[in-house]
Amino acid sequence: MASLPGSQSGGGTARGRRTVYATRRVSFCAAHYLRSPQLSDEENKALFGKCFNTHGHNYVVKATVKGEVDPRTGMVLNITELAQALEVM
């Protein structure tokens, strides 16, 4: 099984079948702010500090699947389908 950028594979055998792990890693950025509609801007600033202003965070998601290699395709799954599922997030 070929290794793709952002993925890892490794395996063993069980009853003559090969078990493989495939990991896909994606990163994304998100922005938000913390405010309570019940409070004034001054109260929100005092309560939430710098988080009162819009700011961002960077996130990394790793999804690992494990399975037996399909003898017909040579794959555990179509890694493109896993990548597409992660893009929906």
Q: Secondary structure elements and their pairing?
A:
Elements: E1 9-14, E2 17-32, H1 41-48, E3 55-68, H2 79-88
Antiparallel strand pairs: 1-2, 2-3
List descriptors:
89 residues, alpha+beta, Tetrahydropterin Synthase, Chain A, three-stranded antiparallel beta sheet, 2 helices, 6-PTP_synth/QueD_sf, 6-pyruvoyltetrahydropterin synthase, 6-PTP_synth/QueD, 6-pyruvoyltetrahydropterin synthase activity
What number is the mean pLDDT?
Answer: 84
Cα(first) to Cα(last) distance is 26 Å
Order of helices and strands: EEHEH
Provide the domain count: 1
**Unreliable stretches, pLDDT < 50, 5 or more residues?**
1-9
Tell me the CATH superfamily.
6-pyruvoyl tetrahydropterin synthase/QueD
CATH topology: Tetrahydropterin Synthase, Chain A
CATH class: Alpha Beta
Shape category: rod-shaped
What can be said about the biggest beta sheet? 3 strands, antiparallel
Number of strands: 3
CATH architecture term: 2-Layer Sandwich
Structural class: alpha+beta
Query: Helicity range of the residues?
Result: 10-25%
Oligomer: single chain
What is the beta-strand fraction?
35-45%
Describe the strand arrangement of the main beta sheet, using strand numbers: 1-2-3
Describe the structure.
The chain has 89 residues and is α+β, with helices and mostly antiparallel strands. The chain has one domain: 6-pyruvoyl tetrahydropterin synthase/QueD (Tetrahydropterin Synthase, Chain A). It has two helices and three strands, in the order ββαβα. It has a three-stranded antiparallel beta sheet. Strand 1 and strand 2 (17-32) form a beta hairpin. The longest helix is centred in the C-terminal third of the chain and has 10 residues, at 79-88. The protein starts with 8 loop residues before the first strand and ends with a helix.
